[in-house]
Amino acid sequence: MMIDKLKLADDLTDAFIKYQYRLENPFPSPDETKSVMTAKYTSDPVFRAKVINLVGGVLHVIEMHNLPKKYCYKCDVETTWLAPDGRCGDCTGYTPEEIRGEV
Ligand SMILES: [Zn+2]
Predict the structure, then answer these.
(1) Cα(49)–Cα(16) distance, integer angstroms
(2) Who contacts 39 (Cβ-Cβ below 8 Å, separation ≥6)?
(3) 77 close to 90: Cβ distance less than 8 angstroms
(4) 14-69, pLDDT tens digit by residue?
(5) CA 83 – ligand 1 centroid, Å
(6) Percent of residues in the chain assigned helix, strand, coil, to nearest 5
(7) How far is the CA of 61 from the centre of ligand 1 (A)?
(8) What local confidence, expressed as pLDDT, does residue 10 receive?
(9) What is the CA 87 to chain-centroid distance, rounded?
Protein backbone atom coordinates (compact mmCIF):
# COMPACT_ATOMS: atom_id res chain seq x y z
CA MET A 1 0.00 0.00 0.00
CA MET A 2 1.37 3.39 -0.97
CA ILE A 3 0.91 6.19 1.52
CA ASP A 4 0.38 9.80 0.47
CA LYS A 5 3.05 11.24 2.74
CA LEU A 6 2.05 14.88 2.35
CA LYS A 7 -1.58 14.11 3.15
CA LEU A 8 -0.46 11.93 6.04
CA ALA A 9 1.77 14.71 7.41
CA ASP A 10 -1.14 17.18 7.11
CA ASP A 11 -3.54 14.87 8.95
CA LEU A 12 -0.96 14.11 11.64
CA THR A 13 -0.27 17.82 12.09
CA ASP A 14 -4.00 18.50 12.60
CA ALA A 15 -4.26 15.61 15.05
CA PHE A 16 -1.19 16.64 17.05
CA ILE A 17 -2.27 20.29 17.20
CA LYS A 18 -5.39 19.07 19.02
CA TYR A 19 -3.38 16.62 21.12
CA GLN A 20 -0.74 19.17 22.15
CA TYR A 21 -3.40 21.82 22.80
CA ARG A 22 -5.25 19.42 25.08
CA LEU A 23 -2.04 18.54 26.92
CA GLU A 24 -1.52 22.21 27.72
CA ASN A 25 -5.24 22.92 28.29
CA PRO A 26 -6.59 19.74 29.88
CA PHE A 27 -10.12 21.09 30.35
CA PRO A 28 -12.13 21.72 27.17
CA SER A 29 -13.72 25.15 27.09
CA PRO A 30 -16.72 26.20 24.97
CA ASP A 31 -14.85 29.03 23.21
CA GLU A 32 -11.97 26.93 21.93
CA THR A 33 -12.39 26.21 18.25
CA LYS A 34 -10.18 24.71 15.62
CA SER A 35 -9.06 28.22 14.67
CA VAL A 36 -8.00 28.91 18.28
CA MET A 37 -5.82 25.80 18.17
CA THR A 38 -4.48 26.63 14.72
CA ALA A 39 -3.65 30.17 15.87
CA LYS A 40 -1.68 28.71 18.77
CA TYR A 41 0.25 26.54 16.29
CA THR A 42 0.94 29.51 14.01
CA SER A 43 1.90 32.04 16.68
CA ASP A 44 3.72 29.99 19.33
CA PRO A 45 7.13 28.68 18.14
CA VAL A 46 7.52 26.30 21.10
CA PHE A 47 4.06 24.82 20.57
CA ARG A 48 4.78 24.52 16.84
CA ALA A 49 8.13 22.79 17.48
CA LYS A 50 6.44 20.23 19.74
CA VAL A 51 3.82 19.42 17.10
CA ILE A 52 6.42 19.19 14.32
CA ASN A 53 8.55 16.84 16.43
CA LEU A 54 5.56 14.59 17.15
CA VAL A 55 4.65 14.47 13.45
CA GLY A 56 8.26 13.76 12.49
CA GLY A 57 8.50 10.98 15.08
CA VAL A 58 5.38 9.24 13.85
CA LEU A 59 6.39 9.59 10.17
CA HIS A 60 9.75 8.05 10.99
CA VAL A 61 8.16 5.01 12.63
CA ILE A 62 5.75 4.57 9.72
CA GLU A 63 8.64 4.81 7.27
CA MET A 64 10.58 2.13 9.15
CA HIS A 65 7.57 -0.18 8.93
CA ASN A 66 7.09 0.57 5.24
CA LEU A 67 10.62 -0.24 4.14
CA PRO A 68 10.75 -3.09 1.65
CA LYS A 69 12.03 -6.18 3.40
CA LYS A 70 15.37 -7.52 2.23
CA TYR A 71 16.86 -10.88 3.11
CA CYS A 72 20.51 -11.91 3.10
CA TYR A 73 20.92 -14.78 0.62
CA LYS A 74 23.56 -16.37 2.81
CA CYS A 75 22.16 -16.27 6.37
CA ASP A 76 18.53 -15.32 5.51
CA VAL A 77 18.47 -12.52 8.07
CA GLU A 78 15.99 -9.69 7.46
CA THR A 79 17.81 -6.40 6.93
CA THR A 80 17.27 -2.91 5.58
CA TRP A 81 20.61 -2.99 3.76
CA LEU A 82 22.25 -5.56 1.50
CA ALA A 83 25.66 -5.41 -0.14
CA PRO A 84 25.69 -5.59 -3.98
CA ASP A 85 26.48 -9.32 -3.66
CA GLY A 86 23.13 -9.87 -1.89
CA ARG A 87 24.64 -10.52 1.51
CA CYS A 88 23.99 -8.64 4.75
CA GLY A 89 26.61 -6.46 6.42
CA ASP A 90 27.66 -9.28 8.75
CA CYS A 91 28.11 -11.83 5.97
CA THR A 92 29.72 -9.63 3.35
CA GLY A 93 32.35 -8.26 5.71
CA TYR A 94 32.08 -4.81 4.12
CA THR A 95 30.41 -1.81 5.69
CA PRO A 96 27.94 0.27 3.65
CA GLU A 97 30.53 3.08 3.75
CA GLU A 98 33.21 0.83 2.25
CA ILE A 99 30.84 -0.31 -0.51
CA ARG A 100 30.05 3.29 -1.41
CA GLY A 101 33.77 4.09 -1.46
CA GLU A 102 33.53 6.58 1.37
CA VAL A 103 36.43 5.12 3.34
ZN1 LIG B 1 23.86 -12.54 6.21
Answers:
(1) 11
(2) none
(3) yes
(4) 999 999 999 999 999 888 899 999 999 999 999 999 999 999 999 988 887 877 78
(5) 10
(6) 60, 5, 40
(7) 24
(8) 95
(9) 27
